[in-house]
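The methods section describes the discrete structure representation at length, but only in general terms. What matters is that the chain and its backbone geometry are given together, residue for residue. For illustration, here is how one protein appears when written out as sequence plus structure tokens:
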Amino acid sequence: MMATLLTDTLKTRYAALQAERERSWTAAQLEGNARQRAQLIERFDPTAVAQPGTILPPLTFAEVDGGHLSLDALTASGPALFLFFRFAGCPACNIALPYYAENLYPALKELGIPLIALSPQQPDRLRDIKRRHELPFAVATDTDNGFARLLDISFVPDNRPSPPPAGWIGEVTGTNSWELPQPAAVLVGPGRRVEWLHVSPDWLDRPEAEEILRHITPHLS
């Protein structure tokens, strides 16, 4: 039997974040944020990302607490679910990951499905988000957005000043690149086969735990 999900939703938590921003941000900041999200939604083509049946190469990921996670090992006896997020200091990610820890992880644990959160940020910088929220699942680095590129879910923002200003995204992540993954959930089965992929071009509109569970359950044997 699956764990009972909490009643407050990810949508509710993001609505509170947006309300706070509307109280504290300037009109220019709000407009810039909304414009970038709108552009990503407009440009998103669901047929251009990896489709179910895609076979992935034998990837490995550096886990923030040391060691490496192998895609082959993670999917040896069943599927694994990967959650792509941007970086440890991302406000929207600091809402999403604790929400999934509370509402998604318990059900996945009962089903025997590993949950791994992935960001391109370097492991020593990425460790902070796991410790801050005491996340019970693995957090690891997708080096150079390698996995995200294979899924065709990475992007670079339109506004890229040259030279980059202090504190730019490549400095924060340690990648020296503007490239980030769009938030996404991907279920990978044995044989490194993509079973299901959900991409959120708007990083303030990510799927609820119940939605993820509803989509992945048919892929369980």
Summary: Confidence is low (pLDDT under 50) at residues 1-6. Residues 27-43 form the longest helix (17 residues). Residues 154 and 181 are 4 Å apart (CA to CA). The two ends are 15 Å apart (CA to CA).
